[in-house]
Amino acid sequence: MSTQAIQALNLLIIDDDPLFVQKITKSVKEHVLSARLHLIDDTEEFNKSLRQQEWDAILFGNAYDLTIIDAIDTIAAAKKDIPVIALKSDEPDTPLSLGDDTTDVVTQQGFAVGAADVIERHRMSHLTAAIWREVNNLRTRQTLRTTITRLQDADARSQAFLENSRSAVATIQEGVHILANEAYVELFGYVKPDDLLGVPVIDLVKSSDVGPFKELLRQYSKGERNNEGQEFHGVRLDGSEFKANFQLFTAVKNGEPCLQMVVQPDEAQQSQAMVAAKVAAAVRIDPLTRLKNRLAFEEQLEETRSRSIALKKSAALLFISLDNIGQINATHGLAGNDAVILALAEQLKTQFDEALVYRFGDASFTVLIQDSDEAQAVQSAEALVQSAQTTLINVDKRTIQTTVSIGIVIISDTSPSSPDIFKRAFEAADKVKLKNKGVGNGVDVYRPAEHATTSDTALRELIEHSLINNKFELLYQPLYDTENEENLFYEVFIRLPLTDGKTMKPAEFIPVVQQFGLEGKLDRWLILNACKQLKLHLQAYPNSRLLLNLSAESLQDSTLPALVSRLGATIGPNGRNPLVLQFHESDITTYLQLAKENIASYRVGGCGVSITDFGQSLNALTQLTMLDVSMVKLDKSYIREMDKSENFQAVQSMIEQITAQEKEAIIGYIETPAIMSKAWSVGARYLQGYYLQPPSTVMVTNESE
Asked: Of 54, 521, 554, 570, which is least surrounded by CB within 10 A?
């Protein structure tokens, strides 16, 4: 192994054997210049370590209350790229926290759940080589992501250069024009850029120069670069000619290689490029404060957002608005206005890195703070508020004082577009004035959770944050077994807590979950966290079961049955799977063939399957005969007026046909005594509703009552 590829690594070891850690530490340090190793063996420490440290690789052995499935799913939920190497026991009959006792099966399932490798603990050389390989692969992936972002940025800058350059620039692919800027169009006498689309480049070169020009193109295609260019005669649309220097550069357009051609007429001086650069810099400087202006800020904001996406690091945007600039103008005129602006600019230069401070408008500034979290940004903003209100500004022997309102937005890899980020900062600053009755003089942070009910993008950020940080809330509503009171059965409902203490129901946030493709992640979070709670509950009540509502995406996920089967076998007494998964009838109808296959897989793994909202379609009972489900929950429309004779008979008939197919019926939505009396006599196995027991944050038992 070469020590050039990796100079140091951060290695997390999840195991309960300190002696093993000593062995792997010695082996790893023989092959790398430096290694920092950390040993943990429980879930809490693991979650804490993921938040506080960037790990290069994880070795997973034995843990107190953590399985490799939990670890890999937690890493995925946190959107981290960390290879996990599973450690098999030296004893072949010892499982790998997966519930199996066969070494080959352990190896196969280790790979199935996402482990990078599965290695026996005593094979130190093999283990060290695998660590080396996976960390090198990780470095390669990180470099690739950074390169892609830089390429996108370079392409954007190249496009901006092409559009705004005073030089004549065109993009050429396979010998024809595909793009040209205004200067190029004007130089060759055309009216608009579209007039040049598809025009062969040799048509713009004097006939006597075509041969040498083609030779230049051939040489360039062979790799013989000449960035100084070559003199040719260009031909305008009207037939007039001019002498110019033609320069060629490689470029990429829409993923395809192409050439960029810069044409500099002979009369243009060599200093033109330098002048253009100075002009470009000048147009990005505010003449009064000498800070960068709005144009420079907008470019940097987009770059900061791209950096946050690539590096998974947060940044902060501060929008700073002068509160009483109108009064200052009226009282002190332009001189007073300029004096206040200059004073605030100097404070910003002193407190922040001047390179990231901008004068955005007449009476507003922006600041970008790289690698900053909310607490740091608020601390800096509050210091600026205090500094601004205590500063005395003298104009013609008169003293002026001002205050500022500051809006803060934290930029992360889940943030929306740059214009939306700025809009949030502006709204937060405006909110300061609203809260202080127009006075301002304060700080407000835009938090997606506070806007989740009015903004889909804010709600998406809150959902992703809640998935990563386990902020969702689970509620449990009992289903009463009419045949066996000792069987404890709970349907699980998910809620999204908001900052005002209220919670959002699925009907409110699921459309956004679907819009941004988060259904699968939400379902897996639900399964994993519900199973953790059930595992504790089963210690006292071994007959307990859970009914979990899943989405159409999970119904189609052919990898989910194996995960659910392993989880159920792990937490259930004697390997009995205590989970029942419930899917909507409409989803099953839409994906019927795939649903049949996956439902069969769940049943083979010992997991029950239920259909909810049953009876909406005309052929519901016919379709039921094709599905190996264990339960059926009738649609609310059947229950709503069941106290009426004709409706009662329809429900009773439906349940008889369900029972005839050896499937258990669930009557939910029982809200009144009248419905309860009918539901009890209709023949359903399970009864559920607010009249019996509302959902609770804990699993209520008969003893609890």
From this structure: 54
**Exposure of 128 by Cβ count < 10 A (0-12 exposed, 13-18 middle, 19+ buried)?**
buried
Question: CA angle, corner 373, sides to 470 and 443, nearest 5?
Answer: 110
Q: Residue 361 carries which side chain, given as an amino acid letter?
A: G
Q: CA–CA separation, 614 vs 624, rounded Å? A: 9
Q: Identify whether the C-beta of residue 687 lies closer than 8 Å to the C-beta of residue 665.
A: no
Cα–chain center distance at 362 = 36
Residue 292 gets which letter from DSSP?
A: B
What does the pLDDT look like over 654-677, one tens digit per residue? 999 999 999 999 999 999 998 998
3-class DSSP assignment, residue 445: strand
CB-based contact 55:10 (threshold 8 Å): yes
Eight-state DSSP code of residue 255:
T
DSSP H helices, 165-269, are 182-187, 210-221
What are 466-510's pLDDT values in tens digits? 888 889 999 999 999 999 888 899 999 999 998 778 899 998 899
Q: 443: which DSSP letter?
A: E
User: Helix or strand or coil: residue 57?
Assistant: strand
Spell out where 524-663 has E strands. Answer: 545-549, 579-584, 608-614, 631-634
Question: What gap in Å lies between CA 261 and CA 226, rounded to an integer?
Answer: 12
For the chain, domains (ranges, CATH) are: 8-146 (3.40.50.2300), 165-281 (3.30.450.20), 312-446 (3.30.70.270), 459-687 (3.20.20.450)
pLDDT in tens, 150-190: 777 666 666 666 666 678 889 888 889 998 888 899 889 89
| Cβ contact 613:633 at 8 Å | yes
Instruction: Name the amino acid, one letter, at 150.
Output: R
Greatest CA separation for the chain: 100
430: left (phi over 0), alpha (psi -120 to 50) or beta: alpha
Phi, psi for 689 (deg, rounded to 5): 160, 170
What is the SS3 assignment for 521? Answer: helix
List, as own/partner pairs, every contact residues 656-661 make where C-beta atoms lie below 8 angstroms and the sequence separation is at least 24, other chains included: 656/683, 657/621, 658/621, 658/624, 658/632, 659/683, 661/624, 661/625
Between β-strands 579-584 and 545-549, what pairing exists: parallel, antiparallel or unpaired? parallel
> CB 429: neighbour CB atoms within 10 A?
25
* CA pair distance 222, 363, nearest whole angstrom: 55
Q: Which amino acid is at 703?
A: E
Among residues of the chain, what percentage have pLDDT more than 70? 90
Residue 269 CB-half CA count within 13 A: 5
The pLDDT value recorded for residue 97 is: 46
Q: Cα–Cα distance between 236 and 188 in angstroms, integer?
A: 4
- In 3D, which of 308, 252, 269 has the Cα closest to residue 79? 308
How is residue 684 written in tokens? 């359903």
C-alpha to C-alpha distances, 361 to 189, 291, 335, 498, 582, nearest whole angstrom: 39, 12, 17, 34, 55
Helix/strand/coil percent split, the chain, to 5 = 45, 20, 30
- Structure token pair of residue 430: 């405006």
Mean pLDDT over 526-536 rounds to: 93
* Residue 346 Cα distances to 34, 84, 351, 393, 461, angstroms: 44, 50, 9, 12, 35
Other Cβ atoms closer than 10 A to 467: 20
Instruction: Give the helix/strand (H/E) hosting 404.
Output: strand 404-411
